[in-house]
Amino acid sequence: MGDISLEELQLATRNHGMPLEALRYDVTPVGLHYLLIHYDIPAVDPQSWTLTVRGTVQNSLELTLDELRARPAVEMTVTMECAGNGRARFDPRPVSQPWLSEAIGTARWRGVSLPSLLAEAAPLPGATEVVFSGLDRGIEKEIEQHFRRSLPLTETTDALLAYEMNGAPLLPQHGFPLRLVVPGWYGMTNVKWLDTIDVVVQPFEGFQQATAYHFRHDDDDEGRPLTRMAPRALMVPPGIPEFFTRARTVSLGDVELEGRAWSGHAPIAGVEVSDDGGESWAEAELGEDGGRWAWRSWNYVWRPQAAGEYVLSCRARDEAGNVQPVDAPWNVGGYSNNSVQRVSVTVTARDLL
Amino acid sequence: MGDISLEELQLATRNHGMPLEALRYDVTPVGLHYLLIHYDIPAVDPQSWTLTVRGTVQNSLELTLDELRARPAVEMTVTMECAGNGRARFDPRPVSQPWLSEAIGTARWRGVSLPSLLAEAAPLPGATEVVFSGLDRGIEKEIEQHFRRSLPLTETTDALLAYEMNGAPLLPQHGFPLRLVVPGWYGMTNVKWLDTIDVVVQPFEGFQQATAYHFRHDDDDEGRPLTRMAPRALMVPPGIPEFFTRARTVSLGDVELEGRAWSGHAPIAGVEVSDDGGESWAEAELGEDGGRWAWRSWNYVWRPQAAGEYVLSCRARDEAGNVQPVDAPWNVGGYSNNSVQRVSVTVTARDLL
Lengths: 353, 353
Known about the structure:
The structure is a homodimer.
Chain A: H1 6-14, E1 51-55, E2 61-63, H2 65-69, E3 74-81, E4 104-113, H3 114-121, E5 129-140, E6 143-152, E7 160-165, E8 168-169, E9 179-181, E10 194-200, H4 207-211, E11 214-215, E12 224-225, E13 232-235, E14 240-241, E15 248-251, E16 255-262, E17 268-274, E18 282-283, E19 285-286, E20 296-302, E21 308-318, E22 343-348
Parallel strand pairs in A: 1-10, 15-22
Antiparallel strand pairs in A: 1-2, 3-4, 4-7, 5-6, 5-10, 7-8, 7-9, 11-12, 13-16, 14-15, 16-20, 17-18, 17-21, 19-20, 21-22
């Protein structure tokens, strides 16, 4: 991996990942969920804020936060991952937010069902997509813009307009007062600081939809848009870390490995573990199903036979037959890098502190 | 600035800074306060956890969380900064957690006064220091260790054993179930996941006390320990950012600059602003005093006379006569870099979105 630039470091210090030991929690504690904030966190006054639903609809809507909160509420536990997770592991490294493997998190979101709100607005014949506009704004590739993304009407079924996260009002950095949550899709879909919902006839061609977030083999490739999360398993790095290198040390003996796995395409069917860098694999035990959109816990008792150096990996497969690759394909934007995690571990014969 | 290594990036993705637009909040929202976690976040069972107070005392204590919560509570708003804040701006760059300028935050901490607990334990004649041990452990410079720091008994006056942050139980990453808060001191003093308090006669010589966190001019310098936070002012970068470079653009006209300033030595006496990279300075207006240990807000209406490129800076001075330097002195560990912030801004004659 080449060295990281100042620009990448600036992004890394702003946009934080989830320390992987937090894989131990079913629901990620507040403040440990990953964050990718394209521009600045906007300051939103909830008293004057309203949500506008408009466009190719029979009934335009303008709703206050209180009006949204007065509607029937839906709650879902959802695992979310940045489409750029793993980017900094590609070689050559695509230059943007330099995620390693920590751009993940799981939260309990509570809010209003998007289909119910759209039904109220009543899309007119010809409507095909919904465009979500956030209040966050900035400049990207010389284009001044609000963060905006669209979703086909056919993909809105499970989506939520969330005003609560983990039982409390949304925090500023998670989109206060309202955000979109589209379970199973990569993070950029889940527009924060939601301001306007436009029902449209023509495909939305905004920057974040038509230019960014495409999987392109090379610069000439038109690419395909990123949508649902590819399957991935991650483990809590076992033992204790060295401060600077994060290298792990465990004592010889049984080591309880644990982690989580998820896929936006289908439920997790299994997780395998390797202690020889991917030469051989053994099946892990899956934990309880925490719901269709939540990650699945897994456990594996690792019994290293001797002190020495090991490389631990895990990989997930889902019920649609998607298998996490040992090495995911490089692409221009550095998206969807679900190559298996590699955790170097020193097994020592001595007891640790 | 030279390029950043994989090891530094690993730390940057774990240990997050406070996005500087969050300087707008008196109290930093949960999840935006900076975090520096030396090893891993330990999993602590609050049911079996106890705090032990022992050593050169008349009465050893062992207290449950409920027993601590049943005592008279103290609440304080405290600004905390990592001693390594600004490290990555030094040239050559000391290699460790690569902070730029965002390793800060302000929280409302609630807990038990440390002096009251120490009075109950009743230090015996000869006792000079208190050693705080955390449950977090790892390896640093080949030494296996729990995170441990000491404080002279004479410096314990304002300290708190906190079980709440911003009105809720401590989050795992902030030291659940109990942490030390020593207002005015750099972050490493505020031991998290507190387990044991030892009252001792001899100066504590543990790694984090005697080796790390020293200001050393060169490798032969014995150095002096880092203690209280040097004065610093920071501003919310104005206007809107470019995604990758974070470069700022504002429209020509009055620009309301705002920020915060603090010093661990004495209350803030004033903040100055420069728009020419530190050639000339103008006095900002200080906001209300939020308490001795909280940062002080400041405002300044900047009136750029023409479109063009500017470099904005701010600097603080405190009532003890400490003035923030334009360029702080380099040191081996990269500590206490309170060089003034430099924010490059493009002023454009056009209106922004």
